[in-house]
Design a protein that fits this description.
The protein is of the alpha/beta class. Helices cover 37% and strands 16% of the residues. The chain has helices spanning 15-24, 48-54, 77-96, 116-133, 145-154, 166-169, 178-183, 212-219, 243-253, and strands spanning 2-6, 29-33, 58-63, 101-104, 136-140, 160-165, 187-191, 227-230. The protein has an eight-stranded parallel beta sheet with strand order 7-6-5-4-3-2-1-8. Strand 4 (101-104), helix 4 (116-133) and strand 5 (136-140) form a beta-alpha-beta unit. Helix 1 (15-24) packs across helix 9 and helix 4 (116-133) crosses helix 5. The radius of gyration is 18 Å and the shape is globular.
Length: 257
């Protein structure tokens, strides 16, 4: 089993320093956000892959930017076309940089009334692009999990699936573990972390209330899963300690002896 950690984990430092921390903690891979970094350490996203690999890590996936996901379900075909083109471009980037998967959201947190036909049309075209470019497309279980459930029921393309996020899943009592059990064989990416059932904390597993041993046991019944990935954020107490200590604690949190 390989282990991966998201490149942003709550400490303000240059991208390469964060990657060195992940490598130094014993991880095999890193997940990266596919958008430029700005001041005080500007860096173009196209430079990320080389930096990750020269530090001895593989790249698990990229995470597409947060750019108005709810529009997917409400905007007209003409209005949404530029966003569709942009997301297809991100998938093509994965092929160009030899990155196996892209993670994206279904929607934003704001209130809106989804048009299921519009959402299905958008994600179906992305699924087609994923097949064309040989890239897995992993849609994350954020709020309104019924929308992801709908997409997984309607789109059966081999490369279209779910990014399972444990912190998101356990925020609402009616969701806890349900989408995991129902669609675990569609998992294309993982964001494992913990919370207190109150807010999306993204704590280290074991620091909150999520039964992550049970979650992991469910995940490991899927033979195609070969990377355990953490999307965690250092809280205020951790940020007073060394980032390497934080990353080491993440690496050890779900490793089975």
């Amino acid at each position: 089993m390989n282990y991966s950690m998201f490149s942003w984990f709550g400490y303000f430092m240059p991208f390469e320093e964060r990657i060195k921390i992940i490598a130094g903690a014993g991880f095999d891979e890193a997940m990266i956000s596919w958008e430029d970094e700005f001041e005080p350490w500007p860096l173009k996203k196209e430079e990320f892959p080389e930096i990750v690999r020269k530090n001895g890590l593989g790249i698990t996936n990229i995470h597409a930017p947060f750019i108005g996901y709810s529009d997917i379900w409400t905007a007209s075909r003409t209005e949404i076309k530029p966003k569709l083109t942009e997301f297809i471009g991100f998938i093509k980037d994965c092929q160009d940089f030899e990155i196996p998967a892209m993670v994206m959201h279904t929607n934003d947190l704001d209130e809106f009334t989804p048009d299921l036909d519009k959402g299905l049309a958008f994600f179906s075209e992305l699924a087609d692009a994923a097949e064309k470019y040989g890239v897995d497309l992993a849609v994350e279980n954020v709020s309104r999990q019924h929308l992801l459930d709908f997409l997984l029921e309607q789109i059966n393309a081999p490369r279209f699936g779910m990014c399972y996020d444990s912190s998101h899943d356990f925020l609402e009592e009616q969701n806890r573990g349900r989408i995991l059990k129902k669609h675990k064989h569609r998992i294309k990416a993982l964001h494992l972390s913990d919370n207190d059932f109150k807010e999306d904390r993204h704590w280290i597993p074991g620091e909150g209330s999520i039964p992550l041993d049970e979650v992991l046991a469910e995940i490991l019944t899927v033979p195609t899963i070969n990377t355990i990935s953490y999307e965690v954020l250092a809280n205020e107490a951790w940020r007073e300690k060394e980032p390497l200590d934080f990353a080491v604690a993440v690496k050890k949190s779900l490793v089975k002896k």
